[in-house]
Structure formats: C-alpha cells, structure tokens
Amino acid sequence: MNYVVGVDIGTQSTKALLVDEHGAIVAQRASAYQPDTPKPLWAEQWPAVWLKAVVECVAACVSDAKAAGIAVGSIKALCVSSLYGGSGIPVDTDMRPLAPCLIWMDRRATAQVDWVRENVDLERLYTITGNGVDSYYGYTKMLWLRENEPDVWAHTRYFLPPNAYVIYLLTGEVAVDHSSAGNIGGVYDIARRDWSDEALDMLGIPATMMPERLVESSEVVGGLLSQWTEQLGLEAGTAVVAGGVDAAMATFAAGVTRAGQHVAMIGTSMCWGYINQRVDARHGLISMPHVFNGQHDIYVFGGAITAGASVTWYREQFCHAEIEAARATPHGDPHRLLEASAAQVPAGADGVLFLPYLMGERSPVWDAQASGAFVGLSLFHTRAHLYRAVLEGVTFALRHNIEAGRKGAQSLDDRLIVVGGAAHSDLWMQIIADVTGYPVYTIEQDVEAAMGAALLAALGVGLVSREAAQGGWVTLVERAQPDAQRMALYEQRFGAYVDLYPALKPVMHRLHTS
C-alpha cells in the first residue's frame, strides 16, 4: 500500500493528513495560530509561523504512520495548499522574507485601488484577468508595498504565495501554481494561463517579480531536500506537489470537477464557487484556474470576508457565560450552547438583521469601508436573537454571491455542497437550505482542503488516474432540505438585506473617514 500527505495552510490553523491510495485517513493533525492585525483593516502573517505549523503537522502524521507499522518509503508524495496569500511573501535574492505576507483579509490598499481606477484601462484589465479592482486582490497590495515600503520593494526578487514559499523551502524549487497566480488578480492572463506583461506594464509591477515557472496544481515541483528528512520523518526525494488556493482545493475535495457543481466553503471567511469555462469580471466574482483540469476549467467564486470570523467575534465579545459554562463540562463547546438557544428563536430572528462586514466586504459589494451592523434591535431581543441573526447574515451574504454567480454560470446544480467549520452546525445548515432554496450536502469525513491536497498528491505521482480523481475521496451526506414556509420569510428578509448596504453605505464611509 502507498500513502500520501495533504497539507492545508489556513488563516487560523494548518491541517495535515496522511491517507492511503484509496483515501482512507491514517493520521491527521492541526496547529492553530492567529494572523497579525496591527491596525484596523490590516491582516498579515510572517511565513515562519506557517512553516513551523507545516513541519509540526507533517512530522506528527508521519510519526503516527510509523507507529502503525507503515514504512516511510511507502509515503510517496506531499502536497501543500494554502490560504489566498494576497500580496504573497516578498523575498530577496536569497529567498529571505522581507516583510510579512499581506493576506486576503487585509484591506489597507484603498488608495492603490483609487490609483488603479484613475490610471489604468479598467476594461482592458477586466478582459485580460477576468478579475476586478479591490484591495482584496494581491496586485493592489503589491502596489501598497511599492508606495509605503520602498526598501522592501527595492529588494524584492519574487512575490511568493504561501504554499509556493513553503514548497521552495522543502525542495529548493521556485514555482507558482496557476490557481494562486490567477487569484492575485491584475497580473495574470486568464485566457493564456500566464503572467500578463501588458497588465504588469499598466500597473508598473516588474515582470521579474513574478516567478518564471508556473505549474499545474497536480504537478511535482521537486523532491524533498535531505535537510528535512530528520524533522519531517520523510525520505529525501519524496515528491512535493504544487497544490493551490484552499477554496478551490476544498471544492475539489468535495468532488467538484465539472461545470455547474457549486460549493460553499465556510470557515473564517466564506467562499462560494462553481466550475465554468468562461469568466466575466463585471459580475463581481473572482476567477482563477481550477486546481483540477486547470488548463480548461475555471473556478469562479465570491465570498464574505468574515463568515466564521463573525461568529467567533460575537462569541468572544458577548458570550462569556456560554464560554465559561462550556469549560465546566468535558469537551464543552460554547457554540452548542449558543446554537441550542438560537434554535428556539424563529427564522428571521424576530426582525433583527446582521451585516457581516467586519473587515469591509468582498463580492459582490467590494467595499473596504463597509462595516458590520445589527439593524432592527429592540428591548425584546436577546443574545440568542443576535446569534441567530449572525448566522442568517452570513447566509444572506452567501445567497448574495449565488445571485451574482447565476449571471455568468452556464448552469448550477440543484444542490449545494457546504464544507468547512460551519458544517458542524445543524442549525446553520438548515438556515442555508432555507435561505438559498437548495438541499444542503456536507462531507461525511471531517476534512476539506487537506483532503484535496492529498488527492492531488496521489494524482501527481500516478497513484490515482485522472478519471478516479474526478470522483473524489469523500462521501457526501444530505444535511438539510429547504422548508417552504421559512423560504418565503427569508425571501422577504433577503430583499431587506440587499437594500440595507446601499442605504447605510454613506454613513459607513463617513464613520470610516471621521
């Protein structure tokens, strides 16, 4: 029996799992951390944090495998996926990081967005890249570094996505997968599947800062360097596979490989995406080559910046009683207590609406100065009402993206797959079914992007065929069916949700600049 390791570097944790060539999980590990947020709307991470977590998780998985009697020589490949790294890690000619990575959540580049809008042919940029202009995108973050960190800019040799940087350290090879390259936005030609010299020239970003080697997500970048054998427990020369952006990887893990299939990944953020063969930036969604069949298929997605992060924020700020109560019980989870209370609140939270714009918002709003809000409060409402309103607000953001996606999708299947931490919540799955009108399915196994990485590792070294990889390694289970009565109520509330942002936008912006 042969084995592979899949790794996913996330915003708040890194996960690794070791599976056999049929996808059976032998070992898995996770290591938690938090991004640095030194100023409002800033979010960054030093890559040493990610590397440490990767080493810890992989080494633990390999150790468990050895304890189970698995020969290290039978572990044939390792694949690394990662969060969208925004700007990427600026490294010098010795490949040393010059500054932290400005990750997807960072929204500091508002002035650079204005500059692009005023100085660049936007229609041409949309046509080339299939993407828009926002401080979410990596290229605007690069421009921020150019304007605000001139020493960093002057010494930058490459901008490397998180997975590419870790893979470089493991193999000594510099390569960027197409999904990570496309997600940067304004520097990648989506039709040619290559860096765009024309777009780079318009933006004033030297083409030499983009690594020359672009690879498929299933491609072997190189072999593991001998210096890592002791720390990781793997043999020197073990194949290291390119991987890709975590949202696309989680989508692949769910078996999504054909046009029309769509998945919502709800973790710290929310990414809803589908497979297509064409793009149109005017619909407000994000496009990149898919991690499977990426020369043909495009992963088109939109999402909320603070999905699970909104839930965590609410819990940490307002639910100390539930946190303490959970600590007093074995394996206590405050979310279960909160969910039990919120389940007693009727759909619609008795008139409370929540806008989950706690770090600005991505698609289809695209406003770094958007802010969160509870609307409709009265003395009648309790913390349970507000907790339910948070779950509903994030779900309204999901539907907002689905409605935008319908405009460009060739088709959308009649079911919605949900992956990520939100899938642990029965209440949230039912809310999603009722708000979107789709039956909701989740992955039976407690895995997402890391399983996609493991499957790509197996594909990359020929342990599975492309045909077998299309079906995935996971089992989907039905979690919720939409209820007609609640759907009708949510249809009205969704209309109010959509109207709320434009009504509050002038005030949001005044508060942001005052």
Automatic annotation (TrEMBL):
The keyword Kinase applies. One of its GO terms (biological process) is carbohydrate metabolic process. Keywords: Kinase, Transferase. Residues 264-459 form the Carbohydrate kinase FGGY C-terminal domain. Residues 3-252 form the Carbohydrate kinase FGGY N-terminal domain. It comes from the Bacteria. The keyword Kinase applies. GO terms for molecular function: kinase activity; phosphotransferase activity, alcohol group as acceptor. Belongs to the FGGY kinase family. This is Actin. It comes from Paraburkholderia monticola.
